[in-house]
Amino acid sequence: MSTDIVMYLAAFGGGFLGATFGGLFAFSFVGVTLLIGIAVAIATGDAAWINLISFGPFFGPHVSFAGGVGAAAYAYRKGYLTGLRDIATPLVSLAKPDVLIVGGLFGVFGQIVFQIVGLVPWLGANTDQPGITVVIAGILARLVFGKTGIIGPNSEGLTGSARFRPNDKDCWVRYQEGWGNLTILAFGVSLIAGWGTVALAQAFPEAAGSVWLLGFALSATSLIFLTLGAAIPVTHHMTLISSLAALNFLEITGSPLAAILIGIVFGIISALLAEGFSRLWQIRGDTHIDPPASAIWPMTCVVLGIASLF
Questions:
Q1: How many domains are contained in the chain?
Q2: What is the Cα 225 distance to its own chain's centre?
Q3: What is the pLDDT of residues 75-125, one digit of tens each?
Q4: How distant is the alpha carbon of residue 132 from its chain centre?
């Protein structure tokens, strides 16, 4: 585990930047920079840009997005933000330096957790470290700054399984929450992401470790438009997992068709799992605990765990 002070200073800056932009905008830049990094990797075979910028202290979700989420939770607790689970507002607009400093501190926390997860036997090599860190940071932010606890009560007073039913006030992505609609959405985006992974991995085998991230990059970039108010689907947990599965099972099966179909199955499962997590704790609280990250890290374990059996 690195104790390089420069890395932690960079993480403070990344979390600070994520707070200024707001968590959702900051995450979109993961996609923008990742598109650049994929092009660099194809041209040079070097993934340093991706590792240092897209998934490093600059825009890595475990630093920048976690910083934005933590700062937003703090701002909500202080009364600077009034919207429940608001991660879209650029927090620099609040003109509250303490909010940005909290973002920086959450960036450092995210970097530390990221490194610790990497040291855990098996898990560190077989999960999505940014994803699990984002979830841990979200839970910490809710415990420290929220008022509902990790899983709060239903705002309509419902109990039992009905307690977790979305409504117009407490929902995640209203227009994609229906199970059938969500399954079809996941099928389509997982199909194209899986195909892109297979096609690019075959075309640029020396950059296969980077090009498989194209679908995720496009999904993340598209969230810029969601932040601006367009009804864009949230799909990065689908495209990432379907692409991961397609890449691994292409090597195992040797069949592009089989790899794409397997990717679709895992992409659909990830979509349904994220929606389940949104109902479990995202909409049952007053701060943000990210549903896609909640699905990404365990699904990465499942995909890599099953692939390792072959």
A1: 1
A2: 17
A3: 999 999 998 899 999 999 999 999 999 999 999 999 999 999 999 999 999
A4: 9
For the chain, the C-alpha Rg in angstroms (whole number) is 19
- Phi-psi category of residue 233: left, alpha or beta, with phi > 0 → left and psi -120 to 50 → alpha: beta
Confirm if 282 and 69 have CB atoms less than 8 A apart. Answer: no
Place of tokens 């195909």: 195
Tell me, yes or no, if the pTM score tops 0.85: yes
262 CB-contact burial (10 Å; exposed 0-12 / middle 13-18 / buried 19+): buried
Q: In Å, what is the CA distance from 26 to each residue of 18, 166, 219, 228?
A: 5, 26, 14, 13
Take residue 274 and report the two structure tokens written for it: 């994220």
Contact 128, 300 (CB under 8 A): yes
- Burial readout 31-59 (b: 16 or more C-beta within 10 A, e: otherwise): bebbbebbebbeeeeebebbebbbbbbbb
How far is the C-alpha of 243 from the C-alpha of 250, rounded, in Å?
10
Please name the residue ranges forming H helices in 79-174: 97-119, 123-126, 129-145
Question: Which structural domain, as residue segments, surrounds residue 176?
Answer: 5-308
